[in-house]
């Protein structure tokens, strides 16, 4: 099922009625074109946790990604509109978010990494570790990271373990360390 909404209220009604697997939401929706889509996305995530949300933005606004991810990073995507002109990028983000992953546009990740504060734990990472963390934030699997960086999966696993260690993310059955690592990056 596919639907289209003209504003945030209509979007929320449609999601409640149809219970879709995913909602693609523009951050700036009528009537004010400020953050109605962001507010609607938060409500969708609260009221319909089974619905993945992929947010689209015309502008690079890392603080929006941080606000959403700090609440509940699973089943969330945040892409720049210019990236979804390639439909394969949107389809991939929808697939991955409906599977429970978090997908963030690489441009947003680069901006966040550039503005990381000197006191941020991310600054303790080597360039290779930051590259792996950035690809993790894009929602890539170890195999995807390995392919992108021309490494073996075993090397990616070792680098990922180093990232977790340097960010003080101890193993626990109650947490997803990949998501916590990305949150640490976003909080910079």
Task: Give an account of the 3D structure.
The chain has 188 residues and is α/β, with parallel strands linked by helices. It folds into two domains: 1-105, 3-Layer(aba) Sandwich (Rossmann fold), CATH 3.40.50.2300; 116-188, Arc Repressor Mutant, subunit A (Orthogonal Bundle), CATH 1.10.10.10. The protein is built from nine helices and four strands.
**CATH level 3 topology of the largest domain:** Rossmann fold
Whole-number count of domains: 2
The Rg value, from CA coordinates, equals 17 Å
The SSE string, one letter per element, is: HEHEHEHEHHHHH
Instruction: Catalogue the unreliable spans.
Output: none
- Tell me the span between the first and last alpha carbons: 39 Å
CATH architecture heading of the largest domain: 3-Layer(aba) Sandwich
Helices, by number, come to 9
* Residues in helix, %: 40-55%
Reading off the top of the CATH hierarchy, the class of the largest domain is best stated as Alpha Beta
Number of strands: 4
- The secondary structure category is alpha/beta
Strand content: 5-15%
Brief write-up:
The protein is built from 9 helices and 4 strands. With 188 residues, it is of the alpha/beta class. The chain has 2 domains: 105 residues, Rossmann fold, CATH 3.40.50.2300; 73 residues, Arc Repressor Mutant, subunit A, CATH 1.10.10.10.
Q: What are the main properties of this structure?
A:
Rossmann fold; Arc Repressor Mutant, subunit A; 4-stranded parallel beta sheet; alpha/beta; 188 residues; globular; 52% helix
